[in-house]
Structures are given as C-alpha cells and as structure tokens.
Amino acid sequence: MAFGYEVLVTPLQTLTLYNAVANNGKMMKPWLVSAVQESGITVKENQPTVVIDNICSESTLHKLQDCLYAVCNSTDEGATGARLFKNAFYKVAGKTGTALVANGSRGYADHIYQSSFVGYFPAGAPKYTCIVVIKNKPFAKVYYGAAVAGPVFKEVADRLMSLEPGTPTTPEISKDSGKFYYAGLTRDLKKVEDILNMNYMDSAGKNEWSRLYSSTAGSRSAAESRSAAESLPTLGREIVARHVVPNVKGMGLKDALYLLESMDMRVSVSGSGRVRSQNPEAGSALTKKETILIQLN
Question: Between β-strands 234-237 and 201-202, what pairing exists: parallel, antiparallel or unpaired?
C-alpha cells in the first residue's frame, strides 16, 4: 500500500478487489491452476467460486468504477494515467501507485520506491484484470507508478487486446523491436523467409551470418514512415571478424552461443528470448577466454 505501512496487502489481494469492481461487485476466489491431470485424465478441476456477492452498495460501486475510469481517460493534461493510454485502441480503468518502502534496518534512508499499476480492460465490458508491481533501485531517478509500472501494464494489455476479434488492423500498440530486427545464420533466415513466402531485399549473398530488419525502424516523420512502409524488409550481411567481439544482438540464444563459443569466449546469459544487449559491445577488441554478458528479452 502507498501509505499506512502497518497494513500488508499482497498484489493478489489487491488484484482480487479490482477484479470484483470490474465484475460489478462480485468477488471471485482466485486460483493459479485451472486443472490437474494425470496421464491425460483430469483428476481435479477448479470451478469459479464466489467469495462475496456484493463488496459494497451499487451506488458506491458505480462511483468507484467512474473514478477508476477517469484516472485513465481524463482530459486533464496533468493526469498521468490518461497520458499513458491516450492512444490506446481500448479503454482502461485503473490506478497508479507509488510507495516508499523500508530497506531492513536501514529504514527509508535508501529512498526505495515500489511502483504499481492495477486495473481492468476493456473498461466498458471487462475481460482482463492485471496488476504490475515493480520495486525500484535505491535513489532511482524515475519511480512513479505511471512511469515505471504503467508502461509494462500497457504492453501486456496491448498484446492481449490485439488478439481480440474486431481489433483495428493497425492498433497503436507498444513498439517492439522484435518485430523488425532478427539476426542469425543466413541459411536459417532465408529458409524462414521462403517458408513464409516473404518478399525481401537480399544483400547478404553467401555471407554466413546476416540480419533481417525492416526499414521502417527509426522513421521519424509521417512522410518517412509512409515511404519506409512501401519498402521491403532487408536481409543484410553481418560481418564477423576473428579479432573483435561480434554483434549478437537480435540473435536467438542458440546462434549467439554457437558464434561466441566458436570464438573462444565464455558466455554469461540472463533472460529469455533473443539478445537485447551485450557487454562488451560489438567491435571491441577480443581477448582470449573473455567473458561476455548477454541479456535476452
């Protein structure tokens, strides 16, 4: 909770309350496993269970729903929640949270903040309730709920709502570099492109490693975006030299490990997905048995 530190409320408890508000006052029992199976046979299955029929009066409930909706849809320029969902193709009802938390015996001296955002969407006919809670580093420059937890909430909501029937063909969803930048073995990238029957510009030739990217990345003006959108994805060469650290950004873990270990480098990995960052950076002088840190996302 933001203030009143003697009260402990878990994220799941908070989420259960917001879910009840979205559910017109009916509080449901949450569960983590929908069913348990043994050898393909269901031995236990959880069913929806009502905990409280009405958490408050109908009048209070409507006022609460209106308040949560206003947080994310206000025309007030100072409303941080409204700015966050300004270009969303769906409506959200929710609330930001920013709490100063204690760090053991040091108390509040380290200025550690906990950022949160909780809400439900689409606001008119709720289907999802979500909570994001992030504990920031000491003395973090940015720690408000709308700035830290809010964008994560919006990205999750964007992904879910983009899969809904009737979604606009070009929704304003969070930018994801994974949509237009991949790297790896040239033969593998070409095989995927052939299977998908993709049209693309091939400047990789017979080079062993290459990168596939969209020229729409980085467009800054509407005119540039329209022009870039008319061009084809590009398959370009990724140059690998024996005496410098290679660029593995955009690669899957298998390709990154294969390339780095073939160059006698030790690899430390965190995360999952494709390589987002690396240290040391590509182009640095290569030292034998050097350790490289790669972050996947």
Answer: parallel
For the CA atoms of 173, 174, 176, 180, the dihedral, rounded to the nearest 10 degrees, stands at 40
Strand order in the sheet with 209-213: 181-185, 209-213, 234-237, 201-202
CB-based contacts of 237: which residues, under 8 Å, 6+ apart?
203, 204, 205, 207, 209, 210
CATH of the domain at 53: 3.40.710.10
199 assigned to some structural domain: yes
One-letter amino acid identity for 53?
Answer: D
Residue 239 lies in a domain: yes
Q: Is the Cβ–Cβ distance between 273 and 254 less than 8 Å?
A: no
Q: How far is CA 52 from CA 94, 96, 173, in A?
A: 21, 25, 36
Question: Per-residue confidence of the chain (297 residues) as pLDDT tens digits?
Answer: 444 566 778 999 999 999 999 999 999 999 989 899 888 889 999 999 999 999 999 999 999 999 999 999 988 876 778 889 988 999 999 999 999 988 888 888 999 999 999 999 999 899 999 999 999 999 999 999 999 999 999 999 998 998 887 766 544 445 444 356 889 999 998 888 888 787 888 888 888 999 988 755 444 344 444 444 445 788 888 889 888 999 999 999 999 999 999 999 999 999 888 899 999 999 999 888 899 999 988
Q: How far apart are CA 77 and CA 74, in angstroms?
A: 8
CA pseudo-torsion sign 167, 168, 170, 174: negative
> Would you give the DSSP letter of residue 230?
T
